[in-house]
Design a protein that fits this description.
Largest sheet: 4 strands, antiparallel
Structural class: alpha+beta
Radius of gyration: 18 Å
Helix content: 25-40%
Mean pLDDT: 93
Low-confidence stretches: 229-234
Number of helices: 7
Shape: globular
Distance between the termini: 52 Å
Order of helices and strands: HEHEHEEEHEEEHHEEH
Strand order of the largest sheet: 1-2-8-3
Amino acid sequence: MIDSNSLKEIAIEYGADLCGIASIERFREAPEGFRPIDIYPDTKSVVVIAKKMPEGSLLSENPIPYTVTSEAVRREIFLTVINICRKLELHDGLIAVPVPSEPYDYWDKENLRGQGILSLRHAGYLAGLGVLGKNTLLTNNRYGNRIRLGALLTNADIEPDDLANYQFCSEDCRLCIENCPAGAINGISTNQKLCRPVSQGYTRKGDELYICNNCLRLCPNGRGLDKKLSLEKR
């Protein structure tokens, strides 16, 4: 099989900036139908990787750079996951199932609420890659919330990483809550029915745009631990 260090070396070799491992036991509280074993019944370990988003994409007054960058990194990270799977399956008896963030397997049209086959931000938390902030984003001590996630499921029983033991959000910080133009954030969850109409839009041609990223951009912890600098629009 394969050990934790060897797997992480492979992940970094193929372009991951971060890699964490969670045991299947940590997903016992996940909703039925959205657990790793619902995707691949022989899952023993969940491997989560992250790639950093370019900081400059958040500084543009025009939403196109952030939109294109975000989509490009999402595609890039899934290709990274696939390449890691290919490498792992060179080991006898080892299976690796790639897990994308989209498309959604669940869609509540009335409430505009979508859900992927596995919650990658929760998987990232369970794999020790960060903590969930009041903005509901996974936040890492090194890269903050400027990351995109991918995952794979494997039948290899690999030593899991410890959960993150740092804390970001102070009790009195409400920047993400008070600066959400849709009023969609309550510090625990995000109301997608309120968020989507305000955060997503279209060009005149009809191409989709991400027109609001305040919860990400204005977070004092957005760049990581001890990097207390948000990106305010100039």
